[in-house]
Amino acid sequence: MANAMQIDDLMVEWQRRYQQGEFLSADELCSDCPELKPEAERRIEEIEHSPAFMTQGLDTGGNANATAIEPSTVPEESQDMLVFQQRYNKLRFLARGGLGEVYIADDLELQRDVVLKFIRARHRHRPEIQIQFQLEAEVTAKLDHPGVVPVYGIGRTADGRACYAMRFINGVTLDATILQLHAPRATQTDGHAVREAAPFSAARTSELHNLLTRFITACKTLAYAHNRGIVHRDIKPDNIMLGKYGETLMVDWGLAISVDRDDSAKASGEETLMPGSGTGSSSGGTGYPVGTPAYMSPEQANGAVVRPASDIFSLGATLYKLLTGRAPYSGESADEVVRKARLGAWVSPRHFEKHIPRPLAAICEHAMAIDPQQRYATALELADDLELWLSDEPVAAYHEGFSERLGRWTRHHRVWTQAILTALVVVSLVVTLAAMQLSRSADKEREARNDSEKSHQDSLQLAAEFIAKAVGQDLQSRWLILEREATDPELPRRLQALESEPFDPAVGDRDLQLWLSDRISQYDSIAPAKSWMVLDRQGILRGRYPKSETIGKSFVFRDYFHGLGRDVDPTQKQELAPLTRPHRSNVFRSRTDDSLVVTLSAPIWSGQGNDRRVIGVLAMSMQIGQFGILESQLGGHRVLRLIDTNASAQDERGTVLYDSRNKNGTLAQKSQRIPDPLVTELEQLRLSRVQQQRQQLATGGFFKNHFTDAADDRTTSQWIAAFEPVILRTASRELHDTGWVVVVQQPTSARESR
User: Fold this and answer.
1) 154-208, pLDDT tens digit by residue?
2) CA pair distance 640, 660, nearest whole angstrom
3) Whole-model pTM?
4) In the chain, how many domains are there?
5) Residue 114 lies inside a defined structural domain of this protein
6) What pairing do the DSSP bridges indicate for beta strands 257-259 and 281-282?
7) Which end of the chain is more exposed for a tag (fewer CB within 10 A), N or C?
8) What distance in Å separates the CA atoms of residue 110 and residue 85, rounded to the nearest whole number?
9) Which residues in 206-240 are b (16+ Cβ under 10 Å) and which e?
10) Given a cut of 60, is residue 342 above it in pLDDT?
11) Of 465, 462, 464, 461, residue with least CA distance to 660
């Protein structure tokens, strides 16, 4: 009787420890009473195989022990099939995500560690999660590649949750390795002194090259998936595993979708991967971001159609983290990160780490191009460029200068280089030493002055370049929004209905007004607008939000309706056709509040094939001050201005559209202009920038050390200023020169007082 009570107490203790994640053997449990060991072994075996303990502890967050068994029943119509039954137990908690949780388990049949992934208990009754989980297991299993974790089998737990078993990888994530790469590191130099070894120092070259080689392997794995018609949608450093023995694996295919393959992928001979679960190929966007915002492409963040180009952007973002130690986007809230991702508002990696080699930074930026058509066509092309850089060969993403080509030649011909240098050193040594001695004091003073000047110039130029890029990306994002919304079937339906229905301008079309109200509210956080408008093919304003007395009036003369580049004379009767491509109007003054306004517009199409025609125009007007980046605080005495070198509605060239010294930056009462000679210089700068971008050439800053600001009340005040034009690519991949130039300026006195 005493032994029975004692064994009961021991089993209570075993179960308590079991639920806490600790598995006790019979020897450990009965260390003080070995005579009870046989009975303890028998009871432990019964408990382990009891249905009540099949999934116990799987949602506790700590180490767990359980047994998961694949279904062993075989349908009658498949009795001739060969069926295996695998058994796993002693689960140890590894990780948990929003939908699933991962454990390490013992494979009882083959005596090895495996990884089991389960749907979390809270989601087991959600059909859409079950389908997505099944799709993830099928995609992972069918991607037969060394860079994808092999799947051993799929089954269900006793409480009905799907789970699948896969290979256990003993390693770390790429993200953890990147943190190690950028962590402060000291290295011994002469046996006594130590200095910090930066990631791009010579002492760390092999470490950096090894990590880039691993990243190249991940690119090739993703290229294989794309070739099979699979898009990952969640590429990031945390989803790339690095094994202890050189393995590099792409993991977590939970958001993967199948897409239609292009002709080159079909010609490769690889079979299109079409999972039995899910809905097949993806033909449209989700309407909301899916993935990790810090690494996603602008089209993915906008919920648009996702194709392999989006994964290539995320590879570039992962390379960005590898080079800089930080993600491309960050913010104080998730909404801020998503907003930056939608605009593609990332900063050049060399802004954070100036020692990044320029070709390597160019590869990263090419992969992260805002326009999907401007990125690498495939992940293999990205891998090829990285391999060329590792081999010290020219890369496709970067145009080298003469000095860089010369440097490569000297590295490849070291014997000749050393001989030439030795001869030059011997000839010039005496002359050089004498000259250095005579001019040393003068050089020090001049260098200090030049360094200070260069620092100010670089700082102003970087600010001007960043703001110009952000304004261009804002315009591009608004155009993409307009083009997408112009394809809404509701617009042509309402416009066609209005042709046959009586129309009261005082009331307007309620459905159309509601549609416009929904759009201006939906995009208020990422693309604030002064108004949204719909015009029919005769130029009649059919809808406007906010509502206005101008509804029902003709605006056929307006530039944003016909896209001719200038308003026409409204007093002359003219039949003008609506525009057929996205357009940006010239800047004009609003009749309501006298503020400076620009309007973006896109055609509304109806019909298909030869019957396709433009039946209206969708337009978005915005006050110049509604560009979010113009609200940036530059700090100190710096001033931000936006100049329009185009002819305005009043034939004025060089109009100041924005000045940060004014309230909200707007110039509503009196126009400011810059002198004509400076306008001419800025026009030449714009033409030069367009040519450089077409040929993918490196650009240099445009800077003035002596600049007079006509808007400055102090007539004797002098400024230094940096200039950068706003140039972007439209959705049709054409370069668009807005004619606007960003100016960041600072008083000379503020520079000298530093």
Assistant:
1) 888 777 778 888 888 888 999 999 999 888 766 555 555 455 567 777 778 888 8
2) 5
3) 0.50
4) 4
5) yes
6) parallel
7) N
8) 12
9) ebbeebbebbbbbbbbbbbbbbbbbbbbbbbbbbb
10) yes
11) 464
Please, where are the H alpha helices in 276-307? 298-301
**Range of lowest pLDDT (131-140, 290-299, 340-349, 448-457):** 448-457
618: CB partners within 8 A, 6+ apart = 482, 485, 486, 491, 532, 533, 534, 601, 602, 603, 604
Q: For residue 556, what is the domain's CATH number?
A: 3.30.450.20
User: In this structure, is residue 642 part of a structural domain?
Assistant: yes
From first CA to last CA, the distance across the chain in angstroms is 91
The boundaries of the domain holding residue 16 are: 2-48
Question: What is the token pair recorded at 465?
Answer: 């370049």
Same domain for 159 and 177, yes or no, is no
In a domain, 400, yes or no: yes
CATH of the domain at 353: 1.10.510.10
**Phi, psi (5° rounding) for residue 43?**
-70, -40
Q: Which of 352, 378, 410 is the last residue of a domain?
A: 410
Q: Do residues 152 and 275 share a domain?
A: no
Average pLDDT over residues 316-344: 91
Cα 487 from chain centroid (whole Å)? 25
Query: Which stretch, 200-204, 541-545, 735-739, has highest mean pLDDT?
Result: 541-545
- pLDDT value of residue 53: 46
Per-residue pLDDT reduced to its tens digit, 70-80: 444 445 554 55
Other C-beta atoms lying within 10 Å of the C-beta of residue 103: 25
Give mean pLDDT, residues 717-731. Answer: 83
| Same domain? 41 vs 88 | no
Among residues 657, 658, 728, the alpha carbon closest in space to that of 686 is found at: 728
| Nearest-angstrom CA–CA distance, 102 and 107 | 15
Q: Is 137 in a helix, a strand, or coil?
A: helix
Q: Which residue has the tokens 């079309």?
A: 509
Q: What is the CATH number of the domain that holds 144?
A: 3.30.200.20
674/663 Cα distance (integer angstroms): 20
Are residues 723 and 594 both part of a single domain? yes
**Token pair in block for residue 187:** 């290295």
Among 362, 382, 410, the domain-final residue is 410
Q: How many whole angstroms separate alpha carbon 127 and alpha carbon 120?
A: 13
- Is 161 in the same domain as 303? no
Q: What is the DSSP secondary structure assignment for residue 211, as one 8-state letter?
A: H
Task: Report the length, in residues, of the chain.
Answer: 754
Residues 143-161, mean pLDDT to the nearest whole number: 83
Separation of alpha carbons 347 and 327, rounded Å: 10
Q: Compute the distance between CA of residue 420 and CA of residue 426 in angstroms, rounded to an integer.
A: 10
pLDDT at 715 over 70: no
In degrees and rounded to multiples of 5, residue 47 shows phi and psi of -65, -45
Cβ atoms within 10 A of the Cβ of 447, count? 10
- Rounded to an integer, what distance in angstroms lies between the CA atom of residue 256 and that of residue 258? 7
Burial 458-478 (b: 16+ CB within 10 A, else e): eebbbbbbbbbbbbbbbbbbb
The Cα 630–Cα 328 span in angstroms is: 21
**182 and 159 part of one domain:** no
In a domain, 525, yes or no: yes
Q: What tens digit of pLDDT does each residue of 295-319 get?
A: 999 999 988 888 999 999 999 999 9
CA 199 – CA 325 distance, rounded (Å): 10
Six-digit token pair at 262? 């292009």
Based on the fold, state whether residues 163 and 178 are members of the same structural domain.
no
How buried is residue 432: exposed, middle or buried, by Cβ count under 10 Å (0-12/13-18/19+)? Answer: exposed
Give me the numbers of helices (H) and strands (E) for the chain, helices first please: 20, 25
Mean pLDDT of 413-421: 57
Tell which residue, 299, 287, 304, has the closest CA to residue 368: 299
> What span, in angstroms and rounded, lies between the C-alpha atoms of 166 and 663?
61
CA 743 → CA 346, 410, 589, 680, 721, distances in Å?
20, 41, 22, 15, 7
